[in-house]
Specification:
Blueprint lengths: L1 H22 L2 H8 L3 H15 L2 E2 L4 E6 L2 E6 L4 H5 L4 H11 L6 E5 L5 H10 L4 E5 L3 H13 L5 E4 L2 E2 L4 E6 L16 E7 L1 H5 L7 E4 L5 H6 L2 H6 L4 E6 L1 H6 L4 H11 L2 E6 L4 E5 L4 H7 L5 E6 L8
Helix pairs in contact: 1-3
Length: 309
Amino acid sequence: MWNRLVAITSRGIGRGVVAAYRFVPQAVLRTAFRSKAIVHLARKASTFLALGTTTATAGARTFSYRDALFQYANNDALPFYIGQSGRFDFDFDAFLRLIRPGDTVCDCGANIGVYAILAARRVGPTGRVLCFEPETSNANLLERNIAANAVTNIDLIRFGLSDAAGEARLHLSENAGQHSLVDSGGATQVITLRTLDDAVGEATTVDVIKLDVEGADVRALRGMQATIARCPQIRLYVEYSPNAIAAMGDDPAEMIDFLLERFSDVRLVDPRARRILPVERGNSTHAHLLNYNDWAELWPYNITAEARR
């Protein structure tokens, strides 16, 4: 009874803090409360209320999003970001606009499966989602999330994607959603790498690829050139993080050139500003991307294919 009362009371206090956080500038809040701690509490409370987070199993928690349940590691910041100001709602909506019933979707860097499970529902029983997630803990959580949501059209594939087959050391981040091939000096895990071309084979028609592999994105793109070439209707949803790409030793401009050379329509999806802008060689958006130091999504497809919905 006492625990229940504390939880309800804390939730009530949280709602008041969240109301202030959502509608009052942070600078005003900090002046009023003379502490950054209350602002941090508001962020945490906002996430708690928006996502309905509850304790799950040892080392993991559960949140709900868009009528789906997801277990996640205690050190995964994804639920916090999803609950923050609705920015990811715009991101997910843009991604789902690319997908049609019956599509085959490749989720490259699937993490715990939020994109994958939303995509699986979108493609329906005649569609298929191929999830590529090499990190053991995230892949295990993804497997649990597939089962918890009774999704039967997802295949979990436990290796990473690059431009050549082999093995590599995955460097484990303090944030479970940001494990990377970039050397961070911490713990590592040996993973298997393959190209997407090899993984899907020539018999599989791919309709949508979501790519977010923490800086190895240029190399993964090189490894899917044949798939892109033989699937003219293909649509991509690619994270563009120039700092992470450069940390891998690759040139971020190569990603932009790769997409502009192969797709007739490339868009910049900016979840922070809630806008989608055309990227054309030499235009202001193209110039902006060449001097960018944050992250956004790129949305390339061919205008000769069936129009997006």
